[in-house]
Amino acid sequence: MADTLTCDDVNDRELASRYVAGTLDAVATEVFESHFLTCARCQDAIAFSAAVRGAAVATPVARAARMPRRRLTFLAAAGVVFTAVITPVVAHRVRERHAIEALGVLDAPPVYGGVAVRGDASAGDSLFGAGTAAYGNGEYARAASDLRGAIAAGAAVPPARFFLGASLLMLHRPDEAAAELARVIASGDSPYLVEAHYYRALALLQLDQENAAAGELRLVHNGPLADRARSLLARLGERDR
Amino acid sequence: MRSSTPRSFTKLDEAQLATLSRGLRIIAIRSLGDAELADEVVQETLSRAVVALREGRLQDPARLGAFVRGILRHVVTDELRRRGRLAGIERALDAAGDGADALESIVRDEQAAAVRAALAQLPPADQRLIHLCFVDGRTPGEIASQLREPAERVRKQKSRALERLRQAFFGARAGHVRPSTPTVMDESTPIAAGRTVIDG
Question: How many CB atoms lie within 10 A of CB A145?
């Protein structure tokens, strides 16, 4: 999705109804929210969508909504046999995968609480500052680019790689995020170590790597994310029962 | 010819402030699932945004939305931490969650009732379609693909159904105006604001 939207884009892509239904991904949500914060027309569309959603949830006929049945033909009947035998197995696996991926969904990033570098900043520091500023503004693509530049220019690795990993996670690139966060972990003890385990676990969940994610979550012993890690482990444990 | 040096964007007029306030409230309610807390977060975000703008920290006016959204994210986290609501942080930092239902609070009661009544008058097939779009979040294209129907037919069906609901929604708004406290800027404090009513 482009960084900027027009109201026509919002209509064409059904963004208001999908936003209200909670089915937009993190990147689309960020772009849409950035747009409608200054757009009264799209705020109207959201209010309307919220009213329709509320009505649909409350309407008995709609609550039992199902796809209409199609007429069975011979081929369709053959399809039913196939469906009865094969599809449940496949569908179960797909549901399992989606459920695991859902556990790894991250709507908002870890917070950057650093301060601006004072005095003469190196090129790496400057790029790191630009990257974290973009990160703070929710501009994750720009943040990722600047933070890569910062690492190449010699900025301190754990923070730069950590926020690069977080940016990639927000950009729905879990494989790259997991790799960057693994590098933070490999660099040893740092203020980012525990959080890197946690957010790498989310990336791994999005990649359907449940066991590896559980391994990372078990390493989140302390800090503000420990409860969340335990909660996720419990939910993974429930799924195994 | 334009200067190559970007000029900072330093002020918001009342209309911009009102639009931002309403948009922030939508995001905050959706993130937090709590209208009262959302109002506090909106006020704090606007205060910080006005200060940041005065300091010339936004160079490109076209990025105002992204800029203020970034501030909101920090305020949400700060506020919940300050209150020791760790469970709240967990919820806020995850997907929309309960907030999708809480968004109903941005709709006036009479508008909600009008839309419910209009939806109940629609044929069952249209009701199902509306449910698939607005509760399940599916696009007409996805629905058409699953039903093996032409996408254009599903779009037209949705468009017709929505037109009826839209008339009910905006008709209800036209019939009643809720008094609201205007949002104002004051010299002595960054923001002295009443609640901006989201009236759809």
Answer: 17
Nearest to A170 by CA among B78, B91, B95: B95
Q: C-alpha dihedral over B103, B104, B110, B114, to 10 degrees?
A: 120
Maximum C-alpha span of chain A: 78
Which has more pLDDT, A71 or A228? A228
Q: How far apart are CA B43 and CA A27, in angstroms?
A: 25
Which residues, numbered 47 to 86 in chain B, qualify as contacts with chain A under a Cβ-Cβ cut-off of 8 Å? 62-70, 73-74, 76-77, 86
Instruction: Using CA coordinates, name the residue in chain A closest to B84.
Output: A224
* Sequence-ordered strand ranges (E) for chain B: 183-184, 192-193
Given CA atoms A78, A81, A82, A88 in this order, what sign does their dihedral have? positive
Amino acid type, A129: G
Compute the mean pLDDT over every residue in chain B, rounded to the nearest whole number. 76
B198, B26 in Cβ contact below 8 A?
A: yes
Q: What is the pTM of this model?
A: 0.53
Taking alpha carbons only, the member of B85, B102, B105 closest to residue B93 is B85
Does B151 contact A at CB distance below 8 Å? Answer: no
- DSSP letter at B192? E
- CA nearest neighbour of A183 among A198, A209, A162: A162
Written as six digits, the tokens of A173 are 């690139």
Structure tokens given for A75: 């081929």
Supply the ipTM of this predicted assembly: 0.78
Residue owning tokens 């090129």: A123
Optimal mutation site among A3, A18, A38, A57, interface B, most CBs of chain B within 10 A: A38
| DSSP bridge pairs for B184 | B192
User: CA-CA distances (angstroms) from residue B37 to A161, B70, B198?
Assistant: 34, 18, 15
Q: How many whole angstroms separate alpha carbon B45 and alpha carbon A153?
A: 34
Which of A11-20, A73-82, B168-177 comes out lowest in average pLDDT? A73-82
SS3 of chain A: CCCCCCHHHHHHCCHHHHHHHCCCCHHHHHHHHHHHCCCHHHHHHHHHHHHHHHHHHHCHHHHCCCCCCCCCCHHHHHHHHHHHHCHHHHHHHHHHHHHHHHHCCCCCCCCCCCCCCCCCCCHHHHHHHHHHHHHHCCCHHHHHHHHHHHHHCCCCHHHHHHHHHHHHHHCCCHHHHHHHHHHHHHCCCCCCHHHHHHHHHHHHHHCCCHHHHHHHHCCCCCCCCHHHHHHHHHHHHHHHC
